[in-house]
Input
Amino acid sequence: MNRVRLGAPPVSTSRQWKALSRAMTRQLLRDPAALFFTVVFPLLMAVFFVVLMQLTWVRGPFDLAVVGPGTQATTLQEALGGGSTAVAVAEAGPQPGKAAVIVPDEASRTLRMAVDPEQPSVVAAVRAALDDTGWQGWEVVAVGSDGSALFDPMAFVIPGVLAFALLSLALTGTASALVAMRASGTLRLLSTTPARRSAVLLSLLPGRGLLALAVLTLMGTGAVAGGLLEPASMLRLLLTTAIGLVMLLALGYLLGGLLSSPEVTNAISGLLTPVLLMSTGLLFPLELLPDSVAGPLSWTPLAMFGDALRHDVVGGITRHPLWLDWTVMAATAAGLTALAARTFRWDTERA
Output
């Protein structure tokens, strides 16, 4: 006599993971703290810095020199307006009192600018005026008149704000969420279900990846509109963001697996975030620190993440080759992932 087995049919691992992913995504989207610190607060920071730069950064008038016929200088002067002047000169060279010396290169459709380091905002003014000159669509390449790289506040701040959003997603949106689920017994309960433990942990990733993509899309669109990002650079920026996100989420899993108290986790996240942002050059230029301090700090993984993001921002100043940034970030992500997997706890009783 054949025996009939009663009960629900086994659920495939794929279906288990999809169901868990939907549940974890809903939980993330219902977390007001995670949404505020990952989306709202970084966007408010970006808007604040844009307004601040508009109000405080020097906007002219500028006195310029253009190498070439007088008609080019006249056209540029009319496009700039606001009392700015542009005079034609025969050859490139130091021009005392000028905010910049502009050398048009017809062959490469490039405007090369030697800029007074004390008036770097002239670069943005010239870029904004290009559509009203004969140089529409030309690339603007600017360096300091002393050969130094020019500091662009917005090119510096935007990558830092994006990194801050992803760091908040890792700490507030991931570490705190894991600790809260462990404290409430949810993790222990999930570990007793047919779902594999790896599927439970990996189910947190889709929602966080989509939220990170939404933040990147919003900030990237704003950066393109503001002339800080070329559309062609978006794919490489996406790759940089993906590597950085994996690295930061691995940190979130590590802290979420080690800490036991939601209150302690929130306190550590609140303390760790500003320290990391300020000490790794994300929201405070390392160039303002002594070389003996800035040099070692620039090699930290989070500093390398900011450096990699600035490779794709127009006017961004970088310290390392992009391949080196990616290598350090990927190696850090692998190390943190291995450590998180080794130390993760499913309940508060087991060490």
Summary: The longest strand covers residues 100-105. The beta strands are 63-67, 85-89, 100-105, 110-115, 139-144. DSSP finds 13 helices and five strands in the chain.
